């Protein structure tokens, strides 16, 4: 697509390079993929938004159980509809990129797992999280009893100040002990 | 504002309380006092909050989260042992005002609110600035600059009404801080902020603008020039980085593999990549410093080239034997532009020092290249740098995967970290969910019934099975090694016999050299199968124990095979090369290593074809199984390590062996990738990728590299090199070339006498080695002590956090109590309320 709309201005490109963990090549690729998602009439809008359904149709996100949460967390839309602008999309890719720090990754992971957006992971969040992990089918779902035990065990292990929820720093504490997290919290375009 | 001051006072009182835990009553009294003082503000606060409640903002709604209530209301509530003490904050139904305060506690806002993030990073930039001590000014330490609870207090109080102002002020402060940071710090800080690009660019714009304005006013143009230069440098650095990034090998292939198999199988391919870089480095060093200079100045060969027959590709001999590939081709002369000293003339010289002297006088001061010295130092340097890289990556890997901490919390880790976001294939995602579910169930079962008591009979049976399995493994290994020993002896005798009588068919002789590599590769292929069968018989509970046992058995086999081979090369062949009619035993050993490397590769191909491709077809078509075989990561990685050991062993004798290894690794990567994509399915068992890669890099360092280095240095130090070929001919050991050079340097240039002195004391004196080892051990000891101390501090801090949590709970219950008492009351009943409060 050689149209002017799909080309990125040079100063913007270097700015994005500075503000995200992405390289020039990745940003250009991201821009290409993003422009493909845009519908024809959206291209002329100054800051076009891609609706959530379209974002989720990306093969990288399509089968991810957390796709809706990811879209919501990175969306800056006022309507909270999970639609992404190009900059939001870059934020997403930057957080999931190779060179992003553990801190950034764990911060966004926390927000993705915080289903009710209240700033802590409580029992309800953990239950939803486990359900996402184990899938929706009945044979893989944990029973209520198992779930209860699992959540109380998780809270016992990670809730350091014993207030019944896992807050960001407690979450980061758990994450910092898992060396695999950085390598698995990645999405490559 | 006053409210927040009180918070600080509370902290002081609490500290006082900690110092004298005896008068607990006093502390509590003072608390009540405080609460009374606070009454007025608290009331105002409540009024404010009540107003807000009526507005029914969504931020309150989610705190009384229905999910939480449902979960807490589930059967068996509060029965769990640990659960009881978690609850106090959740058990009661809080009034909405308390919930509001709870929700705006800094530990909870940081996860969602932008203002909290900004203020966190504000504090962080503050710290950074203090550390860097860059241009401190008075305005930096404004009243709210202290990273204390005070700032948060204000934020919580006026969250909704003054929220915007507050955020704006915080942002101004952050910008102020940012512009005082150095440029690189600022960029790094901005990049690491979990804000959206738009906000970050706004922050940067503000910081840049302010920074530039102050630059204009205060600083002369030279620093502006500096600023521009820095910007230009940064841009070129970015383009350089993105160029390097575009060079990254196999990105698409790696993405495909990880999209389907996840991190575990990916680690194998990353290991291939690491090895490839090691070999490229080795190849560059030996190629540039040895092969190219020698190829530019080819020595006169005594006999002409043999014709190319094709078998050379397998045996490495014949046509290749007198080429730049092997040790024997390298001359012992000093290569220079004008005066080339032919090696044949050197052979006649009885004493090396004399020959060297004449050479020096011949060549004078013209730039010259002393081949023996170059050979010696290139190999030494290559090994040294490889060693440093290996140790560095090993320590880094250890630091990442083994944190100093108590290792509990597996369940939380499993739930928070087990999802692999790279996996994008639908069936793999499904499989992965199933795996996670199974693992979670298993872990839960484990924690619920810690240890199931087994009967004595079962236990004895178990031990017997293990003993039997180990007996089979060790027995088969020993048998194979003995067979190898006798077979190599037989082959050696056969060679001696053949060298005495002229053979009719030289090709047959060449081909017979392939027998030993074939046997070794067969052993390497078949014995792991036996090991797997015994492991299957043993039925280990945990997959990690299973992997470790498999690794140790395979390692045992490979190490003992390599020991026998090294004895064969360095003990039998090198000690008496003439008995098998060898002019140049180093080249022969180099050829042997080439053959082994190649055979290893060929057998890997065969194994991939038969073991993976045909086995898949067989199991799917004939056995009608649905499952495909699972890629055995540890066995494949161990094979890679074995191949790399051969390559390192051979560098001394075959300087271009890394090139062969590079080609092998490249082919292997594509072959394994196709095979994995075609024939395998993602592993059923959990695989702790980073811990395993730590173990693999350790194995690569410890037995593999260290063994190769020991062998090479033994060869250099104490085995007599061939007399008629190679750079070290006419020397008693290879090491002597360095020694002679130092001596020569001393006679030519007395200023460098210290070098000779250092050489004689450091390299030749074992005392220095002992001293270095001793210092090294002491450093390790200190480090372990430091780690121990840190562990203690961690446990202390953990205790403190728990105490803080208790405090928080206490404060919140107080708040709730006050609130509940207040709500139905009218202001006139306040006085009676106060008396009640002071009583409790």
UniProtKB/TrEMBL annotation, chain A:
The UniProt record lists the EF-hand domain at 101-136, 146-181
> Which InterPro entries does its entry note?
CIBP, EF-hand-dom_pair, EF_Hand_1_Ca_BS, EF_hand_dom
Q: GO molecular function, one example? A: calcium ion binding
GO BP annotations of the record are: integrin-mediated signaling pathway
Which positions carry the signal peptide feature in this UniProt record?
none
Record's protein name: Calcium and integrin-binding protein 1
Arranged from A to Z, the UniProt key words for this protein are: Calcium, Integrin, Magnesium, Metal-binding, Repeat
Q: Does the keyword Repeat apply?
A: yes
Chloroplast in keyword set: no
What PROSITE patterns would the database entry show? EF_HAND_1, EF_HAND_2
TrEMBL record, chain B:
Which residues span the membrane? 265-292, 374-394, 463-487, 514-534, 555-574, 594-615, 692-717, 767-784
Q: Where would I find the TMC domain in this sequence?
A: 584-690
Please give the residue ranges the record annotates as the region Disordered: 49-86
InterPro entries linked: TMC (IPR038900), TMC_dom (IPR012496)
User: Where is it localised?
Assistant: Membrane
Source species, domain of life: Eukaryota
Signal sequence coordinates: none
UniProt GO MF annotations: mechanosensitive monoatomic ion channel activity
Q: Does the keyword Transmembrane helix apply?
A: yes
Q: Which family does it belong to?
A: Belongs to the TMC family.
Q: What is this protein called?
A: Transmembrane channel-like protein
Q: What is the lineage of its organism?
A: Eukaryota, Metazoa, Chordata, Craniata, Vertebrata
